[in-house]
Amino acid sequence: xxxxxKTVLVTGASSGIGKAIAIAFARKRANVLVHxxxxxxxxxxxxxxxxxxxxxxxxxxxxxxxxxxxxxxxxIRRTTPSIDVLVNNAGDARAGDIDDEASWxxxxxxxxxxxxxxxxxxxxxxSSRLRKIINITSIYGNLRSGEPEYLQYSAFKxxxxxxxxxxxxxxxxxxxxxxxxxxxxxxxxWAGVSREVxxxxxxxxxxxxxxxxxxxxxxxxxxxxxxALVGQxxxxxxxxxxxxxx
Length: 246
Ligand SMILES: NC(=O)c1ccc[n+]([C@@H]2O[C@H](COP(=O)([O-])OP(=O)(O)OC[C@H]3O[C@@H](n4cnc5c(N)ncnc54)[C@H](OP(=O)(O)O)[C@@H]3O)[C@@H](O)[C@H]2O)c1
Prior knowledge:
The protein is an alpha/beta fold. The chain has nine helices and nine strands. It is 43% helix and 17% strand. The strands form two sheets. It has a seven-stranded parallel sheet with strand order 3-2-1-4-5-6-9, with helices on both faces. It has a two-stranded parallel ribbon with strand order 7-8. Helix 1 packs across helix 8 and helix 4 runs parallel beside helix 5. The radius of gyration is 17 Å and the shape is globular. The model has no long low-confidence stretch (mean pLDDT 97). The chain binds NADP nicotinamide-adenine-dinucleotide phosphate. The site of NADP nicotinamide-adenine-dinucleotide phosphate (NAP) has 28 residues, from helix 1.
């Protein structure tokens, strides 16, 4: 897919990986719908960067709420007849033991159901062109590298990886679905973490540092541009899984 003049919806583009993805697509001259949940200022900052290379606009919804996702697509349809690429990036990691019912409910809605609902809204939009869905999962969602302290997050990222593969059998060749599974990636999500803990995670890679958000964005652009890649979960973790989880 040539990304020039295509339209890309990036969820959670007010921060971190989503912001880097929005900018990377803009650098390819795609128009970017910069979605945010609560951080309007972050979304405005992303849009400013996007506008250095192409065009776009901001859109808002709490993706844990089904009605807000419907309203998001109503809003998008007012200015944008079709979307070519959807990047399901929004999400946050909440810790939880096996008996933490609130975390099971929260992460089900925030990690899995949100991405599934947004994908459904995207698929319901008309298009006669090839389209792509790119899910941002996690190394924790890959088999054998889940994190027991983040049991629910790991489980639902794993479920999203399964949707990534399975959905193609219903949607290809019109809509192709792939994922990027980041390892420890330097974003504001790590803001409250001590230097010692950061060093532990950086040392848990084979490259001796965190993955950069731009490196995940580069993979998302590659997936969008390569039309033979189908149903894959591309792990970008600096070798963490290979080294062994910390
Ligand atoms: N950083 C890592 O080490 C790492 C590793 C593996 C996977 N990931 C995944 O990569 C993605 C981005 O993470 P990040 O590190 O870039 O985090 P981040 O900087 O905290 O950004 C998270 C983004 O998700 C949005 N978001 C979260 N819940 C939302 C909701 N219910 N409704 C709407 N928007 C919501 C936030 O929007 P607002 O702030 O505007 O509400 C924000 O834009 C996530 O799916 C995360 O699980 C990250």
